[in-house]
């Protein structure tokens, strides 16, 4: 990783993807990708003490940055191979990016997706004109099937991140960041296989070098699907056997060899965030920025909100957090929003044992009302193995204003002689 002192970094002599490759990719992808916006977040600025902007790749065509790399890779397929079409494997964003790019280039696309892929993502991929094959229990099994298809048919396999043209295409995001926010000193983005971070790092570090300064680049992974910290510590690619995260877009068990070789030299820090922190960031983006962002796209904001920069000893003045995608299944959105509300102390469920006599529920309701919490559901149970004669349980679901408000309500209930048990 590069030094974060005030000196201008010396870039490695042999970078597999050059800055000129990224400039060339920009011209190529202009036929399909749009220059996404940069939104100022005053709320994040108040949290961090920095000026914070959001780079909105969630508003990119096909819903994520993936179309940039996919189109650049497919544009360079030799003419004699184009008739065999292209093949890819993905649970979502890469599938849609490849499908859209293929439709623009007039190529036949076959996309292998795991059986559990979200239906909206499957349908969106089909809507872009690709043939979708549902096969395998996970992306790895779909990937094996896609490679087998390429061998048998001669179709060109489009890797989601371990490819020079793909990395160059993703690097065009870095060009836009520096043009839209010239004074940025810190850029934060998600990492899955590493294509986006690698390409962005090349573009940003080279532009900063030409300006005689450095820009800190931070990658973010979900802590239960974080192959990069272990790989960087080992100075070599390390595979994870198990991945558990709501951020399925960055749930990659093995870093790409090409992106890793770039990231280990150019990226300053890699941090991880928890599932609760991701959910909390997603809810924040919905409420405060009016942005629909998938969990993988929200990890950059999760890192900001959870104080990761402060933990690193950084005090940046101008930060850009990249929102890498917005393709979220509505059913997952419901679950994540509820999880985010719980993590933020905005939703509280308690079970309270009561004497089965008139007025008890009314008294509990009065305490809740005086504490200014909002009841959204009540369940009354009079039969259970732990209930004595003349006892009942009530389970109350409430909206609260945060952890301090929940704690205040629980304290008031206990002061009145009740024994509330948090059940969420």
Give me some keywords for this one.
single chain; 424 residues; alpha/beta; 6-stranded mixed β-sheet; 4-stranded parallel β-sheet; 16 helices; 14 strands; 43% helix; 18% strand; globular; disordered N terminus
Write a structural description:
It is built from 16 helices and 14 strands. The chain has 424 residues and is an alpha/beta fold. The strands form 3 sheets. A 6-stranded mixed beta sheet has the order 1-2-10-7-8-9, with helices on both faces. The N terminus is likely disordered. It holds the Pfam family PALP. Belongs to the serine/threonine dehydratase family.
Shape: globular
Question: How far apart, in Å, are the first and last alpha carbons?
Answer: 41 Å
Helix content: 40-55%
The total of beta strands comes to 14
Organism: Auritidibacter ignavus
Domain ACT: 349-424
Keywords: Lyase, Pyridoxal phosphate
GO molecular function: L-serine ammonia-lyase activity; threonine deaminase activity
List the helices and strands and how they pair.
Blueprint: H1 19-29, E1 38-40, H2 42-48, E2 51-56, H3 66-75, E3 86-89, H4 93-105, E4 109-113, H5 119-127, E5 131-134, H6 139-153, E6 156-157, H7 164-180, E7 186-190, H8 195-210, E8 216-222, H9 227-234, H10 257-266, E9 269-273, H11 275-288, H12 295-305, H13 308-311, E10 318-323, H14 330-343, E11 347-355, H15 360-370, E12 374-381, E13 391-399, H16 403-415, E14 421-422
Parallel strand pairs: 2-10, 3-4, 3-6, 4-5, 7-8, 7-10, 8-9
Antiparallel strand pairs: 1-2, 11-13, 11-14, 12-13
